[in-house]
Amino acid sequence: MTVRPNLDRHQRACRMLGHALTLGADAEAWSGLAVVLEHRLTAFERSCLLASVIGAMEIDDALLIAGMIARKARIGMPLPPFLDAVDDAAWWADNASVEERKAVLTAAFLSLPARDQDAFLSHASRRVAA
């Protein structure tokens, strides 16, 4: 008997879910499930699964999990420069979330003397006009 490709990958994902369920409260051990789901299910299938699981949760628990995921996506505040402050800042800005970049930009701008704030705004205005 030949198994259709979708059925095979779905059965493997379900089998892994069954194994994870036997792990009980060991949240760390569940991390392997994510790897299998990523490889066995399409992005659409994973999204539908996520929506179903969230729909089965209490709203406070769902919000707690969503907050944990959002925090994991952040890279944190910039570290002190290692060799070249400009290169380090550019790397951080390329990898930070929009929320992190806005927070650091605002704090850095407000910490500048008024003369430097004016120069920055003038420079930014010229770039926008160009």
The figure for the number of domains is 2
Query: Class by helix and strand content?
Result: mainly alpha
Average pLDDT metric? 85
From the N-terminal CA to the C-terminal CA, the straight-line distance is 66 Å
- Spans of at least 5 consecutive residues whose pLDDT stays below 50 are none
* Element order: H for helix, E for strand: HHHHHHH
Q: How many E strands?
A: 0
Shape: elongated
> How would you sum up the major sheet?
none
What would you say this structure looks like, in words?
There is one protein chain. The protein is mainly α and 130 residues long. It is built from seven helices and no strands. The model has no long low-confidence stretch (mean pLDDT 85). The chain has helices at 5-21, 31-40, 43-55, 59-73, 85-95, 98-111, 114-129. The chain has two domains: 5-73, no CATH class; 85-129, no CATH class.
Please outline what is shown here.
With 130 residues, the chain is mainly alpha-helical.
Compile the SSE list and pairings.
Blueprint: H1 5-21, H2 31-40, H3 43-55, H4 59-73, H5 85-95, H6 98-111, H7 114-129
Helix pairs in contact: 1-2
Notable features of this structure?
single chain, 130 residues, mainly alpha, 2 domains, 0% strand, elongated
